[in-house]
Design goal:
Layout: H1 3-43, E1 58-61, E2 66-68, E3 76-82, H2 89-107, H3 109-113, E4 115-121, H4 129-136, E5 144-147, H5 150-159, E6 164-169, E7 174-179, E8 183-186, E9 192-196, H6 202-217
């Protein structure tokens, strides 16, 4: 083999090695980009599949004004059902809502501006608009309290599948209300986005709500 032939074969071998190396680098880069895209897509929150919950309601706010779901058509809604005479769970959950709102207002003010916290009474006999007004003011300035006639409240409970039942409290010669305890995150078009339970903390709520709102805006 002549020196010229050896040189030509060496060049061909070098080009082949470079081509293989370049192909490997490009393949690894594409794999990383695809993996990142899949990860980003999987982190994008979505409405709860198949969840039929929420809907039209007609209630009275803490100022005595009639309201419907249309009053909040442009807002994300953070809704909790409870009652003002509730000794523990309701104030605890509303404090959680307030802390989540405070965190959002500090860390993601634009998301917070699109979120309306709402407290709906399951005890319309005692929770008058005046009572609701004094109660919600203890938690957050933007928290709205809604009540209404027993029929109006029952319709709202049914729409959100809320369980609530009067139970006689012999120690107080009065009644309490046993009720389900979920915080509902609803989209502006009234799709259920998330349900938060008692063991979810305020930081969890704030982070998840931020993801939902920012994902819809991007």
């Amino acid at each position: 083999m002549t020196p010229q032939t050896r040189t030509r074969f060496a060049r061909i071998a070098l080009f082949a090695i470079l081509a293989i190396w370049l192909g490997t680098v490009l393949a690894q880069r594409q794999k990383q980009e695809d993996s990142a895209a899949v990860s980003q897509k999987s982190e994008r929150p979505a409405p709860m599949a198949g969840a039929q919950l929420g809907g039209p309601f007609s209630l009275i706010d803490q100022d005595g004004k009639p309201v419907t779901q249309e009053n909040f058509a442009k807002d994300y809604k953070l809704i909790y059902f409870g009652f003002t005479y509730c000794p523990a769970i309701c104030p605890t959950e509303l404090q959680k809502v307030a802390r989540a709102m405070n965190e959002l207002e500090q860390e993601a003010p634009e998301a917070a501006a699109h979120l309306q916290p709402i407290f709906i009474s399951v005890d319309p006999e005692r929770d008058t608009p005046e009572v609701m007004k004094g109660y919600v003011q203890q938690f957050h300035p933007r928290l709205i309290g809604l009540t209404g006639s027993p029929e109006q409240v029952e319709a709202a409970k049914k729409a959100y599948r809320v369980f609530a039942k009067k139970v006689q409290d012999e120690t107080m010669n009065d009644y309490t209300v046993d009720h389900s305890s979920f915080i509902y995150l609803m989209s502006p078009d009234d799709q259920l986005l998330a349900m938060y339970r008692v063991n979810d903390n305020a930081e969890d709520l704030a982070g998840d709500i931020k993801k939902h709102i920012e994902a819809a805006q991007n």
